[in-house]
Amino acid sequence: MVVWQARHGVTRVHTLHQFSELTLVEANPKEPSQVLIAAEQDIALVSLKDGGILTHLQGHDYVIYSIKWYVGKNNPFLDDSEPVNHRAEGLKQGCAKLTECNERNRIKENSRQQNTKALGSFDGQYFVSSDYGRNILLWDLSAKRYITKINVPLSASAFKKQMSGKEKNSGKQHIALAWHNGNLLTSTVRGELLLWTLQPTGSKFKALHHLHTRAIYNVVVIGDVAVTSGQDRFLHGFHIGSSSHLFQVPTLGACATSLSFCPHDANRLAIGSQENNIRLLNFGSEIPLHTQLIWQNIKGKILSLSWHPAHEGWLLFGTGSGQVGWADVSSGRVTTFAYYHQKAVYKVEWGPSVCPQQTGLADNWCAYSFGDREIVIRNSSDPMADSIRLHKLAQEMDAVKIPKDVTEFSFSPDYKYLAIGSQDGQVQVHQSCDLKLMVTLVVVRKAIQHLLWQPPSDSSIPYILAIGSSENKIQIFNLEKNFKGEEGGNVLTQATQELCGHESRVVWLAWSPHKTGVLASASYDHTVQLWDTKTGKPMVNYGGHTTRVFRVEFSPADPDLLYSFAEENNVHAWRPSKLKCKTSSESSATLKEYLPKKVKEKEQTAAATAATAQAVVKEAEKPQKVSASSEKKTGANKSSGQNFPSSNASGGKKAVYKSFFPKLHMVCSRKKSFHQLAILNLLAQLKVTNISGLNNINECEIKEVEEDLEEDLGEDSNSRDEGEDDYRSVIVDTTEKYSYILEKDSEMATPDDFIYALNMFGNPHQMDTLLTSEIEHHEARGNDSQVGLMHCWRGTLDEHIRSAARHMKLTPFLVASAPQVSINLWKLASEAYAEQLVNEGDIVTAASYLVNISKVKEAVKLLLKYRLYREALAITKCRLGYDEEMVETVVTTWAASAIYEGNFDLASTLHLSLGHVEDAAHCMSRRSDPGALFISAKLYEHAGNVELTNSVGLLALREAALKHEHLKIDSFINHLPNLNWFRTIFCCHNVILDLLQQVTMDKEGQVNYLTKSRRKQKNQVYQETPNESKIVNETADIEGKSNINANVNGDVITPRNTQNCTSEEWVPLLERIEEEWLAQGITREQYPQLYETITLNFSTQQIPTSVKQLWFLVSVALSEYLMSSCLESWDQHLTTALGYVVSWGKADHIFHLTHALLPKGVNCLMTLGTTVVNEVDKDASSTVNHLRHLYYAAEISILHLHIHTDEFWSKLHSHSSDIKNEIPEGETLRHSEELETIDKESIPSEFAKEGETTVASKSGTLTVPADKSEHMDSTEKEIIEYGRAYCLPQSSNELITVLNLYFDNLNPTYMSAPDVMGLNSGLSSPEKLLLEIILKLRERGDISEDEIRKLLCKVPANRNIF
């Protein structure tokens, strides 16, 4: 964090090591020495005095976006001022009313303060923060916590817009913050500004405006005005007090890329932007200017614009992605051409077709574009048509070839000629009609940047062409004479006028539409120059830009106004009449006066003192760039040091090196007289030792000399000492003799310095002395790399390596160099270096060094210690494959670690690789997914463990059933034949799931719990009664099952003349389960054995923890229920099945099970299946009575749930009115007492025909013929009961009928059915729910008070409902 003192230009830097990145800073307005710092998700209060953290706050889950201090007088939960009603203030009259108002405000303020004290007092400094998750936290610094949290909605408007994909997966959602009179202002991600009323228990907001079309980035409050800036690049001013919009200011969010004035409307300017859009400014509107933004279907930054010369409002554009299209500015519609350039489009222009006879576009305007170094022609009337390439068209016309490296093109004002510029600076001017080459301009030598024809005057068209190029000159060509000749092909090597004055390339030109001959040019020298092309002199120069200028245009409406832009996010408008500078050099000189002057570098001193010598030594130890000049000064060459390449990340910097001879560098860092005296001393040494005579000794004499040296080896030290003394005396004499060579004010170097410097050029003994001294110098300063290399040069690595091993300073180079001394030393160094690498954390490399010296087991143990199991196993199998015990140790250790980490698949694989099948199976059995359990069962089967195979296989089947993976269940059973009995549960579970899916998919509002069954019956003859045949056939015809009849028992009957017929029946759930069992080959003879097996494996009672487990357990209980052999077990398993849904406590699940067991009503017990228990025992069973009670209790709960919805009442009213209109005179609905005569049962509404009255009750859909309702026999009643379906009441009369039915059928004896079963159903008392339904009917007023009283009388008075 940098603290700036702007007045004195002083800065102070504080580093907060606790955070990796600082993202936001906000100064405390009440305490200037404190700031709030946001570090991603954390907030810290930091002191600017010492950079210490005073408070560290945490609470955000996303990166923090904005922080604002609260500057109000009270805490944020107390408004600083009440909202003022200006209209009421103006109507106040008299002091009495004012006093009364003040008293009322005082009482209100006291009550607010009491409420605040009750909620908790907040006395410290406050601030608010927002993050990218749209969360806002209000903090109390004194409490060091946040005191309220707000989540800003995506939109505050009543109409909730569908979220886009970007908003759903948005990573950053910007919420700007501000305070106004103690109230919090925030933005939304959709551009709205909200005003919040903060309360500890809950905050409310009010939308102030929705002026922005995209997210708001910042909010600034100035008085009562809130200024907002957003992603749509607009600044909006909004007055909070009057809720009025004050202004809208358009801005540029990126650098402009093109300018173009409309030729039909001088007040309209088009600006292309790098933000992939076009802004249209209307200078005829009031300030702020009206702005139109065109951005849809534009891909890439706009690089070029061109207005259509004939169609008003058509704007042609080219983008950086190769797209070309035009926009209709009146409608904002964008039309793009099908063909895209491969690269950016740098120039677009409207024009008539060249060679119209060949192209067939004689009457059409074409869009010309330049990109990919070629010019492309497009038909504007057919954007999808193929484009025409100009160079291919020229080849077909046998005209002069168009340059391949095109950089620019431009049509003449009358579109008769086309100028084409190229990369080499040549400009070709062709005739448009046939591409005939008229003239070639070869003056410019660099790439053409812009070609511009002078606009026509009133009398004629001057064919004057201005050329801007990568040169700093502008060429003007008058081509009128060249166009008069018919031959053409002229070559011009000299311009008519040359404009000089720019200091860099010229990239854009603009002719003045007001004054003939005035030209403006934009250049990379940061200036815009105006020229008088008639005289060739500069007029004025605009230097207001600080970067490269790209465009300049004259205003068509004002002759003294120009527009230009550079590499900046703004467009400059300036007047030449107010400028004083005439050239770019003058503008640059003027600009330098306002720029801060650079501090001059201090002059370097070159005093050769002892202090500077020490500085030179230190400098020599630092990395230095190698240069030829330094080598000349020091007398060193490149071979005297080692180059260390620098990192490529530094941008390709030159290699740096560290000197190996710092002492020599220090001695030789003197003035040139020292080196001159050194040369004289070396010459004197050669004379003394007669080196020249030794050069002529032949080989025999050399051998004799060597033998003499060996004999006199003991006298070498004395002779060397004597030689050094003689050498020193020679140096002293020589320096005294030539002392006049020294510069003034210079001291003579000591003889030791000369001896040390000349050791580099002396005999091997002298070089060894020099290296020894340099090595000691490096060791004292810890330069281990240089020490190792220099010991290698000397051949003294033995002792150095041993010392480095003791001090753990080995390097790869020393270890690699050890074998040249001895193998034992190499082993010692490798082992020591491995220990060193372990301490440094490089375990794998350390183990590799141990492997190199054949200590493989030690390497493996090292890897196992640091849990590098893959590396350990690879080394063990490659180097110790014969040692099975070691391999097993590695694998078992790895497996134990995998089990500890929960990676049971890996542990199983490892155990299986060793042949430990049961261990592998045990690992897989610890997982809970079906696939893993099945694999575990197969492994146990391979190991011969039948008991565990069946146990784990059953777990796999159970988990697959819970996850509804039915394909896996079938495959598992095929591979585990011992578990074939599980097909009974599997089939039962499938049938239940199919029934639930059928019920869920019903769309008619009715729910039928009968399931479909297909049976084939052949040659069956049944003589039905006429009444039976009529009713059943009507039912079959309505359901779309022609030629199918059924008797009263539900059996399929076939007409006498029918031989074979396939019918589709609706059967109860339990019957459908037994059919499925039979299809799988499970007969009733197998029931006892299957019952025993299922009971043995599912003997433990469980409580369901999920819906999937609930229905699986119900499937098990129903399977046992159907296979029961006695009344006691039958009753027990039915109780178990009901207990599961009751314990789950959801009305809909109780509803599903009870209606699936009794799909034809509570009185038809044949659907409960099994032939073991007769109907009398079923009817007397307490469990069956509990089932009946739960049947009605679930229906009452469903009805109670729906009466609280508006949709239910609207349907009820509409059906009631329809029934009143449809019932003829003399036909009425039957009362609840009459319904009892047909057992309160009914059939689906689709069985109803014309002339019948439908009463859809809660207990079912009842269809009763109006003229036969009192004369129905038992057969008709059974037919109606057979088709029973459930739906909600459709009218008020039906609702009353249903309520009467429930009161008459609820038996108080079984009101505590769940309690008797030892379970808590989670359902409210049915009587309580019925009473609430009746009270709701009274509240709605849809039923008469008499009917309400009748219903209330049926509520038992002796039960405490509430």
UniProtKB/TrEMBL annotation:
One of its GO terms (cellular component) is SMN complex. Residues 636-650 have a biased composition (Polar residues). Residues 619-634 have a biased composition (Basic and acidic residues). Signal peptide: none annotated. SUPFAM superfamilies: Quinoprotein alcohol dehydrogenase-like, WD40 repeat-like. It comes from the Eukaryota. GO terms for molecular function: mRNA 3'-UTR binding. WD repeats lie at residues 499-541. Residues 758-964 form the Gem-associated protein 5 TPR domain. Keywords: Repeat, WD repeat. Residues 619-652 are annotated as: Disordered. GO terms for biological process: spliceosomal snRNP assembly. Residues 263-561 form the Gem-associated protein 5 second beta-propeller domain. This is Gem-associated protein 5. It comes from Cherax quadricarinatus.
